[in-house]
Amino acid sequence: MNLADAPLDQPLELLSLPSRPSLESRLRAMGVKPGCQLMVMRRGRPGGILHLRMGLLDFMLRRADAAQMGVQPLS
């Protein structure tokens, strides 16, 4: 499943980062990397941005970029 389609308020494990090098390096600098746990907190209007939470870090990500990131639900 990709991050853009992930359900709200469900713990997720990140499997892959987007292919755009500049975005990948920014996410890694914030500690967002494969293996980390995160959650989709809110979605903007259709096609809008996602509000994500990883531990104490809250950040926003464009839905098109989130669609390139693989995740799996944690049980």
Task: Based on the model shown, name its key terms.
alpha+beta, 75 residues, 2 helices, globular, 33% strand
Provide an overview of this structure.
The protein is α+β, with helices and mostly antiparallel strands and 75 residues long. Helices cover 17% and strands 33% of the residues. It has two helices and five strands. It has a five-stranded antiparallel sheet with strand order 4-3-2-1-5. The radius of gyration is 11 Å and the shape is globular. It starts with 11 loop residues before the first strand and ends with a strand. The mean pLDDT is 95.
Largest sheet: 5 strands, antiparallel
Shape: globular
Order of helices and strands: EHEEEHE
Q: Determine the N-to-C terminus distance.
A: 15 Å
Low-confidence stretches: none
Mean pLDDT reading? 95
Helix content: 10-25%
Number of strands: 5
Itemize the secondary structure elements and their pairings.
Layout: E1 12-14, H1 21-29, E2 37-43, E3 49-54, E4 57-62, H2 63-66, E5 71-73
Short description:
17% of the residues lie in helices and 33% in strands.
